[in-house]
What we know:
Blueprint: E1 30-34, H1 61-72, E2 78-82, H2 92-101, E3 105-110, H3 117-125, E4 130-135, H4 140-147, H5 152-166, E5 170-176, H6 184-193, E6 198-203, H7 214-217, H8 221-235, E7 241-245, H9 250-270, E8 284-287, E9 293-294, H10 311-317, H11 319-324, H12 332-336, H13 347-354
Amino acid sequence: MTGPGSEGPYIRTAPLAVEEKKQSGAMPRRIVWELTQECNLACRHCRTVTFPFLTGKDLSTAQILQVIDDITHVCRPTFVFTGGEPLKRPDFFTIAEHARQRGALVVLETNATLVTPEVAGRIKEAGVAAVAVALDGATEETHDGFRGTEGAWKDAWRGIANLKAAGVPYHLKFTVGVHDKQQVPAMVRLAEEQGAAGAHLCALFPTGCGMHLESQEQLTPEEMESLLGWLYASFERTTTEVQATCAPQYQRVLRQQGGAAAVERHRKLTFTGPGEGCSAGMSSCFITHDGHIQPCRNLPLSVGNVLQRSFPAIWESAPLLKQLRDRDLLGGKCGECEYRAVCGGCRARAYEVYGFPMAQDPTCPYQPGTCGF
Length: 373
C-alpha cells in the first residue's frame, strides 16, 4: 500500500529527538483537575476505577490550595474540577472559592445526583461559573443502564432543577457510543428544551473501566466522521452551544465544509480560541487526584507530580509536553496531514491503540491531500 502515512502509524516527518524549537511560553488556559476518585455511581465507562470509599491518596486541602496559588501566580486558567464525584469532598467549596479569589474561572463537572437546594446555593456562593452535568444518553433507560445505578437520571435532573433555581448556568455533557449514537439529535434537543447553556458531545474513550467496552461501544472512524458532519450541519440551527469534545478532527470538518467563515462563527459562538485541535499539553492538561500531571485525562502518562515540583516548572520543561507542542513530530498520516496545525489528531487514542502518543490518530479516516484548505 502506498500513500500518506502508509509507512506505518509511527513514522515521523521530523527526527526522533525533540528539536530546541521556540515554545509559545503560554501557560495553560484550561486545567482539568480530578479532586478525588471517590464516587457514588458505578459508570461502565469511567476513566478511573472508581471507589465507593476514600482511598487516602487524594491531595489534602492545603496541598490543593498551594498548587492553585502556584498556578495562579503565573496565569489565570479555567479550572474544571472533576472526579470521581468532586462533591464527595467536603472541602470542595473551599477549593472552588479559593481558585475564584485567585482570579481563575471555576467549572464543576458532576453527575448532579448530590446537588440538593442547599448544595446548589453553596455552588453559587462559591463563585462557580458553570456546571457540566454528565449524561449518557437522551433517555432515563439509556442513562441508568450505562451509569449502573437505577434512578441516576431522575436524581441528575432533580439536581439540575436545583442549579436552575439557584441561577447557576449548566451544560449537558453527553458520552456518545454505540449504545446511544442514534440519540444524538435528541440529546441536542433535550439541551435546548431544558435551557442548558451548551451540549457537549464526547465519543467514548476505551480507557479506565471503558477499556472493556472498546469492541462493542466505541464509534468507528466512519461513525465519528458522520457524527462530526452532522454537528456541522446542525450547528447554526441550534439555540444552544454545541461542541464536539475530544474530537480534534472537527477543526478539519469545519474547514472542509464551511471554510474560514464557519471557523470564525464557531469560535465566536463557543467562545474558544483559535482552532488548535487536540489541546493536550498545548493549552490544557489534567491533574490526577494524587497530584500527577498528564497531558489530558485520557492520556495516562505522567510528566511530573505537583508534590515534587512546581506546576509551572513541569509545564515548561516536561519532554513529552514539548513533543506534543511540535506537530512536525507527529507520526503516520497525522504527520503528513495538511490540517495537522489545526487538528493534530487525538493523542490519547493514538496512545491507546499504538502505545505511542505521537502516532497517527486511529479514529480519523481522512487521507492527507484529498481535500485542500
